[in-house]
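ok so dumb question maybe but i'm new to this and my supervisor (M.) told me to 'just get the structure for ARM repeat superfamily protein' and walked off. so i did the thing. is this what she meant?? sequence i used:
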Amino acid sequence: MELILKAKERIGLLGIIFMEGESETPVSTNPPPPTQVHQSTPVQSAPLPSTIGKRKPTEMERNSAACVMEWSIELEKALRSKKPGRSLKAISEISPRLQQLSKEPDPSPAVYHLFDLIPGEDKLFSNVIILRLANAFEFGDKHTRVCIVKAFLFEYKKRNKQKEYKGVLCKTRVHMQAELLRRVKVVFDSGDVEDRALALGLFGCWAHFTKQSASIQYLVLSSLVSSHVLEVQAALFAAGCFAELSDDFACVVLEMLLHMMSSPETLPAIRLAGARLFAKLGCSQSLANNAYKASLKLLLEFSDEYYQVAMLVSLSKLASRSTILISQQVDLLLLFLSHEKTLQLRATAPSQVILLIIDRITILVKLVLDLCQTDSVEFQQVNCLFNLLFLVIREYPDLHVLVLDQISVLVKSLSYMDDNLVVTTETDAFVHHSVDLKGEKSRIIRSKLLFKVYRFLVAFLENLTEAGAISTEVFDKVKLLVELVCQSNLFECYTYVLYSLLLRCQIIWGNMVNASEGSRNPDRNSGISLDNYSMKHELRTIECAKRMLAEKNNWPAYRVGVCAACQGDWLTTTFIFKQLVLKVRSNSCSCWMNSLVQFANSERKLELLLLPKQGLETHKLHLTPSSNDLGCQDAASSIKQHIYSKELAAAYNGLCSSLETLKVDDVKTGHIFYFQHWFLSLRVKVIRAVVDIVKILGNIPFDQDNTTNNGKVENLMVGYLMSLQKITQISLQLKRLAREFDLVTTSFIDMDKKSSKIISELAMSCSLLAFCTGFAHYIPSLFKLFLIVVWEF
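this is what came out, is it supposed to look like this??
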């Protein structure tokens, strides 16, 4: 009673509306006038802030429980308004709010206290919103009913099918089920074909509580044999929603569906909708097996291409529920890869294989989390399936967008797999700074699973680079995936840093920088540039690394530093190794860490030569300047050459120090880093050659054509001959270094494929640099192009 009185006090006269659903009489004895609809552009509501999984919540940010009363009042005012289009706008705005109410966990007592709410008040007002929408559906016009069905469809499609639904429309949260069903059934009984179809759509969205009504079940089944295509399609949708939740109902639907699909009188549109319904008949494994066998027989009975594609998709979804069916489905999909099939069917087969693999991984991940064992068979199967997925995507790189989308779904389901493991809202995080979800063991299991996903993504991005498929779309999807992981507090800092490194991966970042520089779009500088985003992202990554080091996770921090070096994030690498130098105790480890710090710092200096820096802009020089421009650019070019020469010299000195540090360790401990010595010595020689080339070419004057004094000409020729001799010696030296890089590859036969490829690329770069060196001496217009090649080496 206290809840009712306080609710009425808060909303004044509108409070009477909240209790109307308890009576059997309609909300209003006189139906409201039909809403006037004007053709206008659809109104998009402002996106609502997601409050799940934020690691740094804003204090006092209101969640859906605190806002639901205001939403209810706004909806009521809009539905009563006579302003054209306002009610439709309010209904469209309520759809994301329903979805937010569904995905957020129940508020804790601290949240109720923080916002001065009565326990259960949020559920009361959410029921009021649903009742108001049902009332508007009963008395509204056609446009209003369509808008209401779209609102509930939006909430339905956003549900996580991998876990039990406990959202705003589940049977335990809806308290006026009979009243809601009565109002919709009135429309079904008294309306035309379109009204009946809309009512069936609502019954499907409300399946969690409508499936218990025998009369509604009969209504749905009887509509399957209607003579109207629209009504049958809506009934198939509702039947699918019911079949996902009830095994008995699904068996009845399967029998009716088989009769409908095999009938020659069935229209193609209905047959296509029926083919899609098979995917929802997997409530139990036995039912999935029966539905798979039945749909397999129906697959080849009709030659319609769209029908066969829909059947293949449904068969794949059914097969994902059984290990036995997966192998059969893969064999079936391979048959559709033959050239005799249409292009669409051939394109469908590999995509369905990918979906099968990821669906199976998702099921196994749930089993691994339930077992909480990394040595289980299921855990090993996950690793095998990721290897299989990589083999498939390597053959079909055009499906990379599908893979990234499905990996995001997998990571999201891994983050929120169990309701007991769902993180708190932002408000809860403000009140309770940390929540122990299911113990440290579950956290470790999740981090290990995400590490497997990370390793797959690294190999996946490398494969895309080889295929030339890296694009802004890939970058955006990887960025969203990284943000998804970093917004959850279910994982360790180790996981956060690893995923953050994906955005600093040289493969993806290098492609994005080149695309940005090559763009001629005048608006490319609007918003946040890639360089600014890179700096901000690096700072966030280092913050995560700081927390990891503060927690004394030294060994994981070292592994992250190694991964950062492999991804080319030299700033993070240098920071981590500098901190670890202070923590190591043995002389050998100390020398090794110091050597890594010096090496990473040098590589960072070389990296900064390729990208613009904050505070010191380094502009690329024009490739082929005209003779008239050379004079006015001499001063600027001289300054830039000096800056680059200085940076190259600093990088060279750092590499020398890194090599000397290893040699000191050899003397002190007797441990010899054979490979590291060899590689660093070659790297030092290459950078030394680059420094010498830049210095020599920077001192060569290219304006000899304008010189008339014989003495000056003679001096110029002497300078040319001396520089030519030096350039020739450096060219031969680079040629020898290329051979020595090849020797490194053949000497260490146990080297991994990626490292071997990198060293082979260095050998090729040395050969190319040796070949191009002499041309810059003879062709003045290629001088600055050569400098760019040198700097990018």
